[in-house]
Give the backbone structure.
Amino acid sequence: MALSTLLPKTTTAKKSADRRVQQSATFADYSPIDKVNTEKLIIEQIGLKAFHFIKRHVDIVNGTTALVSTTTKFNVDKLPKNKFHNIINLKRVNDIRRINKFFESINAKIPIGGVFISRAETYLSRKERILDKFLFPVNWIHYSTDVMVKRVLPKVPLTKKVYFWMTKGKNRVLSVAETFGRLYSCGFEIIDEQYISGDLYFVVRKTKQPFFPENPTYGPLITLKRHGKDGRLFNVYKLRTMHAYSEYLQEYVFKKNKLDEGGKFKDDFRVTTEGKFFRKFWLDELPMVLNIFKGDMKIVGVRPLSSHYFNLYSEELKEKRIMNKPGLIPPFYADMPKSLEEIMESEMRYLSAYEKHPHLTDIRYFIKAWTNILIKRARSG
C-alpha cells in the first residue's frame, strides 16, 4: 500500500491487465514487471518527454511516491496520511471541479518538503491550439466564443453557478498566474516548470499549511489586504488588473524578475491585457475612493502596501508609515523615483515633512504630483 496508481481506462481487452497493474502498484516491493508496466502506462498517457521530466524530480516506483490519475478529491483523500513523500497526478488541473480543495488534500497527505507534480493547459496554449485547429475566420470565432464561455462566465457571480452546473468544472481556462497562485495559496512553492506538448508541467514543494482564503474573488472589483495606520491590515478596493490568485505570487515573481524602475516587477505575467490599460489611466485605483470615505486612507499619502512589499522596507520607514494613513496619490508621482531605494527615500522625505506641516505638505505634493501626471505624463506602470 505504498504506491497508489489510479490510471485511466484503455480498452475492454486491457481492463483485466490494467487492474493487475493497479493492484501490483499498491505494494512497496516492486517486481521488475510491475515497474515496467507502470512506466509504460504513464508514457502512454502523457508521453515520453513528460515522463522523463517527472523522473528528474522523483523516483516513481520507490515506495514513497503516490501516482494518481484523477480529477476528484475523493481519490486523494483515500491515500493514507504521511505515507508518501511525493504525489503525482497525471490529469490536467483544468478538469478539477474544486481546484483549491484538491490541492489542500494533496497538502494534507505529504510532509513539509514533500513534492507534488501535475500539469495544466494555460490559456495561451489553449488559444494557440484552437487557432491552429481551425481555418480563418472560423478559428477566431471559435476562440472568441471559448473566451466568453470558459473565461468570462465562470468569473461573473450571476453566471458562475450556471457555468459549473453545465460543465461540472471540466475543461476550464486557467492562466499560469492563477494556476501557480492557487498552488502558493495552498502551501506550495514552485521548484520547476516546463511546457511539454502544449501542457505546463509543474513541480512544487510543500512549505506550509494552506492559507484557506475565504471568499476568493474572480470578478472585476477586488479587495486586497494592505498595511494601514497602526499596522492594521485593511481591504483596499481596486479594479482587477491581474489574474485571480496573483497576490500569492509576489515572492515567486520577485525571485524570478526582481524589481524594475519605479519599484514594479519587470514583465509581470500576472497582469492581464485589460489590466495594462486600466493601469495606464489609473482606472484600477478609482475604487480606492471608497477607502477614503471609510476613513482607511486619505487623498495624499504613502502607498498602501502588501505584506511582501512592506517587509522589504527598513524598520525606520515601517515605523513612520504605520503612524499615518496611506494615500490615493503617493509621493511617487511627485518625485518619480527609479528604484526601491529611491522610493523609500521619497517616502521618508514625505513622511518627515508631513510630521512638521501635514496640510501644507499634502497640498504641495498634490500639486507636484498632478503636474508630473498631466505635463510629464508620469505613469506608475
User: Anything to note?
Assistant: The chain has three domains: 5-120+174-206, 124-167, 231-374. The chain is about 45% helix and 15% strand. The longest strand covers residues 188-196.
